Amino acid sequence: MPPATPELISPRSPRVLAARRLAKRNFRGKDRLFLAEGPQAVREAAGHRTGGAATLVELFTTLEAAERHSDIVGAARDAGARVHLAAEQVIADISTTVTPQGLVGVCRFLDTPFEDVLAARPRLVALLANVRDPGNAGTVLRCADAAGAEAVVLTDASVDVYNPKAVRASVGSLFHLPVAVGVPVERAVEALRGTGVRVLAADGAGDRDLDDELDKGTMGGPTAWVFGNEAWGLPEETRALTDAVVRVPIHGKAESLNLATAAAVCLYASARAQRASGGCRSVTGNQ
Q1: What distance, in Å, lies between the first and last C-alpha atoms of the chain?
Q2: What one-character DSSP code corresponds to residue 278?
Q3: How far is it, in rounded angstroms, from Cα 79 to Cα 170?
Q4: CB atoms within 10 A of CB 118
Q5: Distance of CA 163 to the CA centre of its chain
Q6: How far apart are CA 104 and CA 140, in angstroms?
Q7: Where are the beta strands (DSSP E) in 197-243?
Q8: Structure pTM?
Q9: What pLDDT sits at residue 98?
Q10: Rounded to an integer, what distance in angstroms lies between the CA atom of residue 149 and that of residue 122?
Q11: Rounded Cα gap, residues 62 and 65, in angstroms
């Protein structure tokens, strides 16, 4: 059954303009709102809560999408979100994708204070240091979620995790595990180490080999992986902060791995080692 609110015909509607401006970082920061596009992201947003309040506050949907995804529209209503039946042109104006899927949600910021991440004493963390590409950031977040990591931390020099491309690349994982943002890398490393977490830098020029570390049995304890910039990796001063610099071995002729692929390999290596040692917890609920 389609939503009962009147159809929004004009792209100049105040609600449409307010949503469309969230494509820009300064407006996202000012309003503390971001866009989640497509069925998967909107479904996850509708079931998520931030600080006791529903994360999804508004949903724009075409008639076709509302009929095809009536369960998502119903979940949005149940979450208290205001649902707008919108013309396809309105959705196209709000959307940041070339081919909109007919559903665009407006969501509250959901980042977790870094102190709360530390208090939970996580065993597996992905730390993004100076990662600038939103697609890579979102994909690493997705990998961390899949590997059972308990938090993702983005340093103050990294991309905005609420960038629409980052949200899309996370494929809903943004709503699954705690994400702390804007943390200076020095503070992040020091604080994580202070909770008993071993901090490893992932770098192709590392002096330790991931396979060797697994063979030696050093990977079973609480671990935070630091991943650097896509183009130039981790600077020496950041590598020096960590407990070890580890490279993913290249057994074939490829020159290197991209950031997201390397992150997946490292996070899954830790997850497997932790499961083998009986110490890995996985994320089982919302933050």
Answers
A1: 31
A2: T
A3: 22
A4: 19
A5: 10
A6: 23
A7: 198-202, 208-209, 223-227
A8: 0.89
A9: 85
A10: 8
A11: 5
CA distance 153 to 135: 16
Q: Residue 231 contacts by C-beta under 8 Å, 6 or more apart in sequence?
A: none
* 248-275 b/e (C-beta count within 10 Å ≥ 16 → b): beeeeeeeebebbebbbbbbebbbebbe
How does pLDDT run across 44-95, given as a tens digit for each residue? 999 999 888 999 999 999 999 999 999 999 999 999 999 999 999 999 999 9
Q: What secondary structure, in 3-state letters, does 236-256 show?
A: HHHHCCCCEEEECCCCCCCCC
CA angle, 26 then 28 then 29, to 5°: 65
Residues 6+ apart with CB under 8 A from 188: 114, 127, 153, 155
Angle formed at CA 107 by CA 42 and CA 35, multiple of 5 degrees: 70
pLDDT, tens only, 52-61: 899 999 999 9
Question: Residue 241 corresponds to which tokens in the numbers above?
Answer: 């902060």
Amino acid at 225: W
CA 77 to chain centre: 25
CA distances from 28 to 19, 163, 219 (A): 10, 9, 38
- Average pLDDT over the chain reads 91
Give DSSP secondary structure letters for 112-181: PPHHHHHHT--SEEEEESS---HHHHHHHHHHHHHTT-SEEEEETTSPPTTSHHHHHHHTTGGGTS-EEE
Q: How far is Cα 61 from Cα 239, in angstroms, rounded to an integer?
A: 46
Say how far apart CA 232 and CA 36 lie, in whole Å: 30
